[in-house]
Design goal:
Blueprint (H helix, E strand, L loop, with lengths): L1 H5 L4 H20 L9 H13 L4 H17 L9 H13 L12 H10 L6 H16 L3 H5 L6 E3 L3 E6 L11 E6 L7 H12 L13 E4 L2 E4 L8 H12 L12 H11 L5 H8 L4 H5 L6 H9 L4
Helix pairs in contact: 2-4, 3-4, 3-5, 4-5, 7-9, 7-10, 7-11
Length: 308
C-alpha cells in the first residue's frame, strides 16, 4: 500500500519532495523539535530562514509542498494550511523569484544554412548531430525525449516518420505519445537526414538499443559505441550547440532551443492550434505559450485589425 501511495506522484516529483523534506527534517531537529507531525509556526520560521538565506521561490515551494505531501501520506493533519505560510509563500513570489533567462529559439533559416554547410558530409558524428537537431525541431522534442528514443520507437513510412515517445515530462500516466514528422522539400528535411543517419550508423530499427548513442573514433573509423548507452546531456549540449553556433554566434542557445524554435515556426505559420498543441504534448495553454516567440508581423496584426 505504501508503494502505491508514493506512486501517486511521478518519480521525479517524489524524489524532489523526499530531499526537500529531509532538508526540513535536518533543520528542525537541530533546534530540538520533530519534523513529523510539524507545528505550523516551526514551518513558518523555516520558510523565513530560507528567505533570509537567499532561497528561490521554487525551493520554498518544494519545502512547503513536501511537508504537506509527507503529512498527507502519514495521515496527519496538513500543517501548511496556515495564514502565516500562505503570506510567506506570496512574499516569496515577490522577493525570491529568480528572473528567467530563456534561450533563443532556432529558426528555419539557421537550419537551412547549417545543413548546407554539411550537405556532402559522410561523418557519422556530424550526421548524428544534424539528425537530432532536425528531429527535435520538427517534433518539438525535449532533450530527454530525443535521447531516450530506442531504435524500435521509430517507424519509417513512405513520406513520414512516427516517433513513439515512451516517457515524457507531460505524460504523467505513461500512456505514451506518437509524434508524426512529415517528409520535407528542403536540404533540412528531417526525414532524409534520419535515413542518412540510419544508413551511416547501421542501426537496426527493430532493436531495443538507444537510437542516438555516443560515437568513438579510431583512425578513419567513426562508429556508435557497442554498449547500449544513451547520449549524455553534457556531451550532446557541447556537440550540438557548437554546430548551431556556426550559424548563430550572437544567440543564447540551449538544447531547448530546437523545441522552442519548432513551436515558434509552426505558431507563426497559422497551424491548427489543437493539432499544434497535441504535437507539442502540452497540457495547458500557459505551458505552450511560454515556448512561442511571436513574429513582428503577428504582433502588428493586433493594431492592424483595430480599423485605425
Amino acid at each position: 500500500m505504501s508503494s502505491y501511495i508514493v506512486n501517486s506522484r511521478s518519480d521525479n516529483t517524489a524524489k524532489s519532495y523526499f530531499y526537500a523534506f529531509k532538508r526540513w527534517e535536518t533543520f528542525i531537529k537541530k533546534h530540538g523539535f520533530q519534523a513529523l507531525p510539524a507545528q505550523p509556526v516551526h514551518i513558518a520560521l523555516y520558510i523565513t530562514y530560507l528567505l533570509d538565506t537567499g532561497a528561490t521561490c521554487n525551493t520554498i515551494n518544494s519545502a512547503i509542498y513536501s511537508i504537506k505531501w509527507v503529512h498527507e501520506m502519514s495521515n496527519f493533519a496538513d500543517p501548511t494550511k496556515n495564514s502565516y505560510l500562505h503570506s510567506l509563500l506570496e512574499s516569496a513570489k515577490r522577493v525570491a523569484t529568480v528572473k528567467k533567462h530563456k534561450k533563443d529559439p532556432v529558426s528555419l533559416d539557421m537550419l537551412l544554412q547549417l545543413c548546407s554547410m554539411f550537405s556532402d558530409s559522410q561523418d557519422l558524428l556530424v550526421v548524428r548531430d544534424l539528425a537530432m537537431i532536425l528531429l527535435s525541431f520538427a517534433g518539438f522534442l525535449r532533450f530527454d525525449e530525443i535521447s531516450s528514443l530506442l531504435c524500435k520507437n521509430v517507424k519509417v513510412k513512405s513520406d513520414y516518420l512516427i516517433l513513439y515517445i515512451e516517457k515524457s515530462k507531460t505524460d504523467q500516466y505513461r500512456n505514451g505519445n506518437e509524434v508524426l514528422i512529415s517528409k520535407g522539400d528542403t536540404i533540412a528535411c528531417p526525414y532524409e537526414m534520419f535515413l542518412k543517419y540510419v544508413n551511416l550508423s547501421g542501426v537496426n530499427l527493430e532493436s531495443n538499443f538507444f537510437l542516438f548513442r555516443p560515437i568513438f573514433r579510431s583512425k578513419s573509423i567513426c562508429k556508435l559505441i557497442y554498449k547500449n548507452k544513451k547520449l549524455s546531456y553534457t556531451t550532446a549540449r557541447e556537440s550540438i550547440i557548437s554546430r548551431l553556433k556556426l550559424v548563430s554566434k550572437d544567440l543564447k542557445l540551449g538544447l531547448h532551443s530546437m523545441r522552442s524554435g519548432g513551436a515558434t515556426a509552426a505558431s507563426n505559420s497559422d497551424v491548427n492550434i489543437r493539432v499544434w498543441k497535441r504535437h507539442g504534448r502540452w497540457k495547458s495553454d500557459s505551458s505552450k505559450d511560454g515556448y512561442v516567440v511571436d513574429s513582428v508581423e503577428k504582433r502588428l496584426q493586433v493594431t492592424k485589425h483595430l480599423g485605425l
